[in-house]
């Protein structure tokens, strides 16, 4: 780990811990997040974790940039991950079907695997939540097996139904809200991923782990899923 501090804005600094995405980074990221929250205390406006960085937005009326850097340096001193502190574990039911997962065929063709094997491999793995972004409650997760990795579709959809589960490169995610999007869609979850009544608004937070569990259509509907078909664009 090679900690560097970069300027983002007059009241915002980026703490870069790593250069490459890796699940092994997360315990260090969580430890650094905790130290920074403790160090800045009431002077912290926001702390935004990502794959390899932590963006620190602080109160410029309370701390000058030099003092903010000193707080960061102190927080990173003798940093070590705490094995006892980890995120929550989630199991998200997913209906994998061509009507709601039109890129299943594309991923099957790219990987050389039958559709059933694409589904099995995607749902057998536990994924790390690295960051939230793009839309409220949109959790960037990984890493999917290299054989399932696929670039975003050439022409993004104008409308992706909420709950759609997709792959982009070695990332996987579920759309919390209806929105445009260009990920390869495999299926759909009925889980409520974003809700203002939830603590933090998002079901998932960086540091959590997620496993997708294949369910049939009847169970998907019983759980409140929307089976509106999604057209294939790729």
UniProtKB/TrEMBL annotation:
Domain Carboxyltransferase: 3-204
Organism: Pseudomonas abietaniphila
Transmembrane segments: none
Protein name per its UniProtKB record: Sensor histidine kinase inhibitor, KipI family
Domain of life from the UniProt record: Bacteria
Molecular function GO terms recorded: ATP binding; hydrolase activity
Keywords (A to Z) from UniProt: ATP-binding, Hydrolase, Nucleotide-binding
């Amino acid at each position: 780990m090679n900690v560097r501090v970069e300027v983002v804005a007059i009241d915002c600094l980026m703490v870069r811990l790593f250069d490459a995405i890796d699940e092994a980074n997360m315990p260090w990221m969580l430890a650094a997040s905790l130290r920074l929250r403790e160090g800045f205390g009431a002077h912290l406006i926001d702390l935004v974790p990502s794959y390899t960085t932590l963006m620190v937005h602080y109160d410029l009326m309370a701390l000058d940039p030099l003092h903010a850097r000193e707080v960061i340096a102190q927080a990173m001193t003798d940093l070590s991950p705490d094995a006892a502190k980890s995120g929550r574990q989630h199991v998200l039911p997913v209906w994998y079907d061509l009507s709601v997962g039109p890129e299943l065929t594309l991923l099957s063709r790219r990987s050389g695997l039958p559709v059933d094997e694409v589904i099995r491999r995607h749902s057998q793995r536990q994924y790390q939540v690295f960051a939230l972004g793009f839309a409220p409650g949109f959790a960037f997760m990984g890493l999917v097996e290299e054989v399932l990795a696929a670039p975003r579709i050439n022409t993004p959809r104008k409308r992706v139904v909420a709950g759609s589960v997709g792959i982009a490169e070695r990332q996987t995610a579920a759309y919390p809200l209806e929105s445009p999007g260009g990920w390869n869609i495999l299926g759909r979850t009925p889980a409520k991923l974003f809700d203002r009544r939830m603590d933090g608004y998002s079901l998932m937070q960086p540091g959590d782990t997620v496993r997708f569990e294949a369910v049939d259509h009847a169970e998907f509907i019983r759980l409140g899923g929307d089976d509106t078909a999604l057209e294939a664009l790729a």
